[in-house]
């Protein structure tokens, strides 16, 4: 699905990381941890074509990310659901329409039943008609997750999806991601929350990666 | 054609996509106002073009058609000279028809000055011959020379030729009208481009979010283009209506005197202003589309 081959990235100064290899196989479940500022978000951005590697090669569904035109990037984003750390929405549209936005821009009509189910799943049924700026931090994250999965994408990349929600809700969101993974979706979650990782390991076989000191290492055993 | 089809498709609309771009009051008003004002001006440019065109056509028609030959001769030679003149005229290239006016017709011509009961037959009134030209007309100098030799009492009066410079001026005005319309279209395009760029810059965040969820450039562009095309269409429709009303309320041709005859629309020409809003929409469509696709390319 997504392959990183000897990848390096720099925002112009020193390299944030280098020599990074990673393969997200279909149906796999990964966690990405590491200290703040290590480059987790940057790594995710490489995985959905928002940034282009300054070294090495990133292949998205077999295509070299460097050679993609903007239409192809748009096409690829429909196959990858992303939960952004900063949860950006269209602030003038109600939450429900924001969640359905990937369907709208892809030209698919959303069935209101699916949308209602999804809203229920992330606990936002009551907030459906509110505007994003009126949501709490946790509600925004749930809305972002709902938006990421509504297209039923092949890959789900989630950046701190449970950063602002309580334990119970984080378990529910994790449950949703696990469910999707069991349906065959590839999942990558960047998180600081080790208890979340532990909870997940009880449900799926997840690999835990740690990004630190410019390197990516497998850290599964230490947990 | 392809452009037109896309334009119609666009105007038909996709309300959901429209909602993705928040309405921006400032650029909306700017587009409405400028396309309205420009359409108002365009109506006058159009009226000018059509009216001067009509004037030029009529004048050049008349001038191509008729001249008059006047024969002043003693009464006993009048008939002979008239016949001779007609023979000369009929053998002149460029003359379609030459016909001596009857006494009744001459009396009618003089009636405004002398009243209806003038005894034309007994007065030494010159005989008039109406000459109808065809094609490019005849060579007046050559004809005069021949007439002088064969019909001493004949005077060729091609008085309508004085209108030639007027026809040229009318044609020039018509051209100016068209150039004005082109300039108006250009200025409208420029203003709408500016407004569209302002809207795109104000909505950078919206564009970013739409990109993140997989919107293609053309989809984002269309949301903007549709807005601006609709506004230009509405603004121009109002401006055109106002301009057409203003032309309609111009003093009527009779009241204003012969020279300004119908500086407005006549007959089917009243349909022409309908073209203006369509043209404004097309200009807005092209201008916004270019601006949006360029901005989206730069922002990636
Ligand atoms: N657009 C940018 N331009 C320059 N530097 C940037 C940019 N975005 C991020 N950085 C820098 O790159 C480094 C890695 O940022 P990144 O957001 O990937 O970290 P992270 O691992 O996701 O951190 P956190 O856990 O806090 O979310 C940081 O030091 C940050 O300052
Ligand atoms: Mg981050």
Folded structure, characterized:
The complex is a heterodimer of chains A (223) and B (300). Chain A is α/β, with parallel strands linked by helices. Chain A has two domains: 1-79 and 153-223, P-loop containing nucleotide triphosphate hydrolases (Rossmann fold), CATH 3.40.50.300; 91-151. Chain A has helices spanning 40-47, 70-77, 95-99, 101-106, 112-121, 137-149, 167-182, 194-201, and strands at 2-9, 17-24, 29-33, 55-60, 63-64, 80-83, 155-159, 186-190, 207-212, 215-218. In chain A, the strands form two sheets. Chain A has a six-stranded mixed beta sheet, sandwiched between helices. In chain A, strand 7, helix 7 and strand 8 form a beta-alpha-beta unit. In chain A, 43% of the residues are buried. The mean pLDDT of chain A is 88. Chain B is of the alpha+beta class. Chain B has two domains: 2-59 and 169-299, no CATH class; 73-152, no CATH class. Helix content of chain B is 69%, strand content 8%. Chain B is built from eleven helices and four strands, in the order H-H-H-E-H-E-H-E-H-E-H-H-H-H-H. Chain B has helices at residues 2-12, 15-20, 25-65, 75-90, 103-114, 140-150, 164-202, 204-212, 217-248, 253-256, 275-299; strands at 66-71, 95-100, 127-133, 154-157. Chain B has a four-stranded antiparallel beta sheet. The longest helix of chain B has 41 residues, at 25-65. The chains are: A alpha/beta (223), B alpha+beta (300). The interface between A and B is medium-sized, with 23 and 21 residues. Bound molecules: adenosine-5'-triphosphate and magnesium ion (MG). Adenosine-5'-triphosphate binds at residues 11, 16, 34, 36-42, 85 of chain A.
């Amino acid at each position: 699905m997504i392959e990183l081959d000897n990848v390096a990235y720099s925002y112009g100064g020193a390299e944030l990381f280098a020599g990074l290899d990673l393969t997200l196989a279909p149906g796999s479940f990964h966690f990405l941890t590491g200290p703040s500022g290590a480059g987790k978000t940057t790594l995710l951005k490489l995985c959905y074509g928002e940034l282009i590697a300054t070294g090495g090669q990133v292949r998205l569904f077999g295509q070299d990310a460097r050679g993609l035109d903007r239409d192809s990037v748009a096409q690829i984003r429909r196959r990858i659901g992303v939960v952004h750390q900063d949860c950006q929405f269209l602030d003038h549209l109600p939450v429900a329409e924001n969640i359905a936005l990937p369907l709208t821009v892809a030209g698919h009509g959303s069935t209101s039943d699916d949308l209602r189910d999804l809203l229920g799943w992330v606990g936002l049924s009551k907030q459906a008609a509110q505007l994003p700026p009126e949501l709490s931090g946790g509600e925004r994250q749930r809305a972002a997750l709902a938006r990421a999965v509504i297209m039923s994408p092949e890959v789900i990349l989630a950046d701190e999806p449970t950063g602002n929600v309580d334990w119970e809700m984080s378990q529910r969101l994790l449950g949703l991601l696990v469910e999707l993974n069991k349906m065959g979706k590839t999942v990558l979650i960047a998180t600081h929350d080790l208890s979340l990782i532990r909870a997940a390991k009880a449900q799926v076989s997840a690999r835990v990666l740690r990004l630190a000191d410019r390197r990516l290492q497998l850290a599964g055993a230490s947990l | 054609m392809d452009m037109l089809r896309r334009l119609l498709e666009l105007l038909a609309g996709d309300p959901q996509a429209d909602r993705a771009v928040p309405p921006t009051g400032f650029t909306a008003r700017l587009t409405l106002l400028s396309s309205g004002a420009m359409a108002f001006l365009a109506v006058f440019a159009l009226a000018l073009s059509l009216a001067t065109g009509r004037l030029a056509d009529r004048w050049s028609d008349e001038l191509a058609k008729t001249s008059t030959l006047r024969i002043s001769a003693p009464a006993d030679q009048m008939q002979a000279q008239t016949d001779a003149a007609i023979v000369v005229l009929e053998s002149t290239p460029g003359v379609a028809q030459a016909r001596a006016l009857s006494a009744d017709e001459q009396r009618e011509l003089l009636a405004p000055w002398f009243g209806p009961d003038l005894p034309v037959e007994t007065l030494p009134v010159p005989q008039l011959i109406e000459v109808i030209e065809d094609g490019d007309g005849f060579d007046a100098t050559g004809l005069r020379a021949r007439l002088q030799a064969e019909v001493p009492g004949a005077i060729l009066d091609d008085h309508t030729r004085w209108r030639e410079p007027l026809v040229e001026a009318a044609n020039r005005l018509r051209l100016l009208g068209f150039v004005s319309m082109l300039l108006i279209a250009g200025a409208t395009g420029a203003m709408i481009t500016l407004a569209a760029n302002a809207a795109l810059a104000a909505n950078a965040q919206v564009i970013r979010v739409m990109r993140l969820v997989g919107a293609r450039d053309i989809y984002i562009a269309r949301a903007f283009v549709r807005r601006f095309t609709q506004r230009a269409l509405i603004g121009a429709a109002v401006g055109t209506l106002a301009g057409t009303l203003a032309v309609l309320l111009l003093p009527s041709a009779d009241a204003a005197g012969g020279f300004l005859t119908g500086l407005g629309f006549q007959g089917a020409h009243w349909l022409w202003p309908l073209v203006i809003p369509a043209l404004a929409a097309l200009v807005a469509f092209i201008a916004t589309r270019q601006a949006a696709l360029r901005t989206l390319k730069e922002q990636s």
